[in-house]
């Protein structure tokens, strides 16, 4: 269903003993009970933010492909995520970026 609604990012996760989601991008407390030991989270490309290095909770990756779309850019990142960001900063292929996935924007997929 998530793919039917448009571009979506899927992030593999494991439930920790404390009920948090451990992912390759970090540890998130989603404020909800995870219905699985291992599963997936999803986040829309426009919800991911490109931030300054050193921002709390940020992860580092590289821009694999940057596509200018007028008022915004679509970034395909080396870690597999797709991001939509405004065009005030024009990113180029190979640029190192730092990203944040706000935990309130992550959706837990069942099953």
Report on the structure:
- The protein contains no helices and 10 strands.
- The chain is mostly beta strands.
- A hairpin with a 5-residue loop joins strand 1 (9-15) and strand 2 (21-23).
- The chain is elongated and about 40 Å long.
- The two termini are 13 Å apart.
- The mean pLDDT is 91.
Topology:
Elements: E1 9-15, E2 21-23, E3 26-28, E4 38-43, E5 49-51, E6 59-68, E7 72-77, E8 82-86, E9 96-100, E10 107-109
Antiparallel strand pairs: 1-2, 1-4, 2-3, 4-10, 5-9, 6-7, 6-9, 7-8
Tertiary shape: elongated
The number of helical segments is 0
Helix proportion of residues, in percent?
Answer: under 10%
Strand order of the largest sheet: 3-2-1-4-10
Radius of gyration: 14 Å
Major β-sheet profile: 5 strands, antiparallel
**Strand fraction band?**
over 45%
Overall pLDDT level: 91
Low-confidence parts lasting 5 or more residues at pLDDT below 50? none
What's the total count of β strands? 10
Quickly give the structural class. mainly beta
Alpha-carbon distance between the two ends: 13 Å
Q: Secondary-structure element sequence? A: EEEEEEEEEE
Give a summary of the structure in a few sentences:
The protein is an all-beta fold and 111 residues long.
Characteristic terms for this protein:
five-stranded antiparallel beta sheet, single chain, mainly beta
């Amino acid at each position: 269903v998530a793919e039917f609604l448009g571009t979506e990012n899927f992030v593999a996760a494991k439930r920790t003993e404390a009920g948090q989601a451990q992912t390759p991008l970090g540890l998130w407390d989603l404020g909800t009970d995870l219905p699985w030991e291992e599963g997936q989270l999803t986040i829309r490309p426009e919800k991911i933010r490109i931030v300054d290095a050193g921002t709390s909770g940020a992860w580092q990756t590289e821009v694999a492909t940057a596509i200018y779309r007028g008022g915004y850019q679509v970034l395909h990142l080396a870690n597999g995520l797709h991001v939509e960001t405004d065009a005030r900063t024009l990113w180029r292929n190979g640029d190192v970026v730092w990203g944040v996935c706000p935990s309130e924007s992550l959706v837990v997929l069942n099953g």
